[in-house]
Amino acid sequence: MTTKRSECYKRLCLGDGYSDVARLFYLCGPSGAGKNAVMAEAARLNPALRIAKRTITRPSDPSEQVETLSAAAFSRAVNDGDFLWWWTAHGLSYGIRHAECEGQGCVIVNGSRAYWPDAKRRVPEARLIVLTVDPEVLAGRLTARGRESHAAISERLRRNDRLQSDSLLDQAWLVLDNTRALPEVAQTLVRMLAC
Description:
195 residues; alpha/beta; Rossmann fold; five-stranded parallel β-sheet; 8 helices; disordered N terminus
């Protein structure tokens, strides 16, 4: 374990100096559910709310602010202990750098549902927020996004059925239904976070 990784682990997971680390909220839900839109609107409503920038191994979408790395550079960053959390999904790698979670206040992380158990083990204080959406609405959003083929969208919808389990919902600190109007969903989030 590198020194950087060891120090961050001690501070975040063991509580040494935890006052220097933000309150972490791990937002997850299916691709296309509108996580970026909800986070952006919530941050607009409450500028004190911070959105953690993700590091990813694909070009960014206009709806998100990310750091893009090659697969090799991402692997080096993992080995150097640069990430608090990192995971792979759909052949891509995603990470949250330690610096994104430091400082005071509330930070929301756009995370993977499959990675949540590992994320919780690394930072037990993190709170889970699950974003749900009606399956028909989700299918329409994925199609409109235009990123994937019909077959890939069908696979995403099947994966959503598997991952959107009662177990995950039972662990959630907050469940938000993003089938409703975006301002209403964001206002609920801001009210619950009370940052």
